[in-house]
Design brief:
mainly alpha; 78% helix; single chain; 189 residues; 4 helices
Length: 189
């Protein structure tokens, strides 16, 4: 633009100097003056436009910087969320493995407990027999056995011999009449 203004000014000066009349010189000088004024206004407008473009560019750069900062913040937040999701996934995977291990281990433990219980139950009668065999039993003498059998025969609730049924024709010793004298002394001796 400045080159065009320079050409016009040079052209006007050449036209002025080529020998025109004074009216024409005045008129050409006036045109050159007007042209210079227009040129100065255009230069002023260009300067204002350049300032506006510069301020707009500055605002654009600032807005771009803010948007980049926001993008960086959002990326950090997304990374934090990804880390959290990854941590939760790891916990979930650990729980899944633990449950799978438990599913494999529990039937084995249950089977082992059942087998141990069966062995204990199987050995319990043997243990009882062994304990019974380990006890020292002193043989009873004939008097004690006789006395025990007689007491059972005489008692109302016999423990060794079955009780007599009502249809039975056999009589027990307790059914027989006893003399009023002391029967207990006879048994004691």
């Amino acid at each position: 633009m400045e080159k065009q203004t320079l050409r016009m000014t040079v052209t006007l000066i050449l036209l002025t100097g080529t020998g025109c009349s004074s009216d024409e010189n005045a008129r050409v000088a006036e045109l050159a003056t007007q042209q210079l004024e227009r040129q100065s206004e255009q230069n002023q407008r260009m300067a204002e436009l350049q300032q506006e473009v510069a301020s707009g560019s500055r605002e654009l750069v600032e807005a771009d910087a803010r948007s980049r900062q926001e993008m960086v913040t959002l990326q950090r937040e997304m990374q934090t969320e990804r880390n959290e999701i990854g941590h939760q996934r790891d916990q979930l995977e650990a729980e899944r493995r633990e449950i799978a291990d438990r599913r494999n281990r529990d039937p084995i433990i249950a089977a082992a407990i059942t087998r141990v219980a069966m062995v204990v139950v199987s050995l319990l009668p043997l243990l009882i027999c062994w304990l019974l065999l380990q006890q020292k039993v002193e043989p009873a003498d004939k008097n004690e056995i006789t006395e025990l059998l007689l007491d059972d025969l005489v008692s109302a609730d016999p423990r060794l011999m079955p009780p007599a049924t009502s249809k039975s024709d056999k009589l027990r010793l307790t059914d027989l009449p006893q003399p009023p004298d002391t029967p207990s002394t006879e048994r004691e001796t």
